[in-house]
């Protein structure tokens, strides 16, 4: 199944994102379950993340999100994890 993670950063936490970006990208690479990912932007500045995972269970997606270095660093104000169906693209 595909699962979308929609993550919104805490206001004023851009430096937290920048400090943990290398570890976050390594987590994506090592997991092998990320189909696509990228930051949300506001006036060109990163303000959150959209990550699409291909996993067997929703729990696997929740565990992936909990282990994300961004989450461990306390970057996110909110995280929504929802099963998602790709229709176009």
List keywords for this structure.
single chain; 89 residues; alpha+beta; Alpha-Beta Plaits; 4-stranded antiparallel β-sheet; 36% helix
Topology diagram in text:
Elements: E1 2-9, H1 14-31, E2 34-42, E3 45-54, H2 58-67, H3 69-72, E4 76-84
Antiparallel strand pairs: 1-3, 1-4, 2-3
Explain how this protein is built:
The protein has 89 residues and is α+β, with helices and mostly antiparallel strands. The protein has a single domain, classed as 2-Layer Sandwich (Alpha-Beta Plaits), CATH 3.30.70. 36% of the residues lie in helices and 40% in strands. The chain contains three helices and four strands. It has helices spanning 14-31, 58-67, 69-72; strands at residues 2-9, 34-42, 45-54, 76-84. The protein has a four-stranded antiparallel sheet, covered by helices on one side. The radius of gyration is 13 Å and the shape is globular.
């Amino acid at each position: 199944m595909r699962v979308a993670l929609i993550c919104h950063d805490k206001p004023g936490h851009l430096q937290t994102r920048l400090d943990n970006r290398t570890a976050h990208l390594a987590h994506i690479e090592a997991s092998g379950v990320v189909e696509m990912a990228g930051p949300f932007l506001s006036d060109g500045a990163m303000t959150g993340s959209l990550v699409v995972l291909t996993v067997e269970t929703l729990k696997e997606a929740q565990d992936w999100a909990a282990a994300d270095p961004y989450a461990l660093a306390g970057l996110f104000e909110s995280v929504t994890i929802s099963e998602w169906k790709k229709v176009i693209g």
